[in-house]
Known about the structure:
Layout lengths: L11 E11 L5 E6 L4 E11 L6 E8 L7 E10 L4 E4 L14 E3 L4 E6 L8 E15 L1
Antiparallel strand pairs: 1-9, 2-8, 3-6, 3-7, 3-9, 4-5, 4-8
Amino acid sequence: MVDLTPIFQGGEHIQSVTEVVLVNNVTKTIDTTVPLGERWLLKHVKVVNADNVNRGFSLTLYKETAITNLIEWFENGTLNTGSVYSWPNLTVSKSINYFRTRLLKAGNTVRLVLAAGGVSTGSTDADGLIIEYLRYRY
């Protein structure tokens, strides 16, 4: 069967949307792994803390699904109540990062961890994690 999915020269543009459900004082971990036969050019990641407490968070890249070999820390900090984090993080001091991309190979895993934030109401955000990338299949 021929895959007739519309593509462009730079790869197929994907905007993966994941619902994030945060529970009272519980850590949330979401792993997204590049499947076999694919390479991704990571363009953008958006994370939302819809809870009513600040939460520590980290966004990391591991070599494999076993989460053994840490390749890169994209971010490690605090996500305030109702805040949104974007990678690459465009700030005055990091403005060059706006044009940053990251090539990922099959097995690479992007891990988001939202730490327990203390007593809270919890929250659900339909688009709490968005990973935007160009997908190359081989």
